[in-house]
Design brief:
Length: 195
Amino acid sequence: MGTTGNALHEYTKKCGEVKDDLLRAMAKLLELDDDDYFVEHFGDKPLTDVRCSYYPVCPRPELVFGLKPHCDATVVTVLLVDDRVGGLQVLKDGVWWDVPIVPHTLLVIIGDQTEIMSNGIFKSPVHRVLTNTKKERLSVAVDYYVDPEREIEPSAQLVNEKRPALYSKVKVKDYFARSYNAFTEGKMVIDTVKI
Ligand SMILES: O=C(O)CCC(=O)C(=O)O
Ligand SMILES: [Fe+2]
């Protein structure tokens, strides 16, 4: 591995520790018996990928998205956003909100896999990136996924009479397969597992 490869390897390892700490805190918050509930769900062969995105200057931002609306199919995405230019927005109650830039901070986006496992208590937000007429923009996203050969479903501890399972069990690999089509068609893949 070259220098960039080493740096990326170190970076994803460190981000991995952040995401495990965060997922343990989330399991605690949900009062699950096991704080490692989410962490253990990754399985023996979890998938991690890194997406480095470059958004060039765009003369007509009203016509072109940097990245169109979507949800991440991850457990969580750890995002290093450009601290010189905004553009990331999240959809809440039908309104697009700018995600503020906080320098030297990692942004964590909850992904679909956490929404499913938490039976909808944690939501995977719809988000998008706008283009900018003056400044180019960079981001580095580290995506953490459960082992594609495993299945995910709502935690039994978060399913009861008052709150039945909101999502059906799905093999991660199958979820990925649907995810690409959904993205190109502008649909949300999580809707395909909603009960
Ligand atoms: O570039 C960004 O800030 C967000 C990227 C993103 O949403 C993604 O890669 O899934
Ligand atoms: Fe995303």
